[in-house]
Amino acid sequence: MPLKVLIGPIAAATIVTVFWFTAMWRGHQNERRRGKPTWQYELGLIGYISALGLFVYLRSDLRAASGLDIFGIALAGQGLGIVVVFALVQTFVLSSGQTWKQRAFPIFGTLLLVFMVVATTLAA
């Protein structure tokens, strides 16, 4: 597919992902102040994950033929990227004061997730 076909859906997916990420960040800040997340934060997270899951379930065996398919694929890929970055930050930065015994399994799980993402990228 030429770039002129790809650029619109991927840019739209990026805008949705950035909007979702900023909403999540704001929800995280509210959670730190109040001690619990707001209902909008939880609804947004569940909605985002549900929409991606439904898209992957319904379109996983079909070739990307339209802008909507490319949009969904880009959104799912960016969502997975957010999960990987969050896992890396949580495991290697935010848990740095914990003992090795407490950090061993999260480090292993995060590195396995990163390996799986890299492997699927290189295998395609």
Description:
- The chain has helices spanning 3-34, 39-59, 67-94, 100-123.
- It has 124 residues and is mainly α.
- The longest helix is centred in the N-terminal third of the chain and has 32 residues, at 3-34.
- The protein is globular and about 50 Å long.
- The mean pLDDT is 79.
| Oligomeric state of this protein | single chain
Q: List low-pLDDT spans.
A: none
Roughly how many Å is the radius of gyration? 17 Å
The average pLDDT is 79
Largest sheet: none
Approximate shape: globular
- How much helix, percentage-wise, in residues? over 70%
Count of runs of 4 or more consecutive helical residues: 4
In short:
The protein is mainly α and 124 residues long. The chain has four helices and no strands. α1 packs antiparallel against α2 and α2 packs across α3.
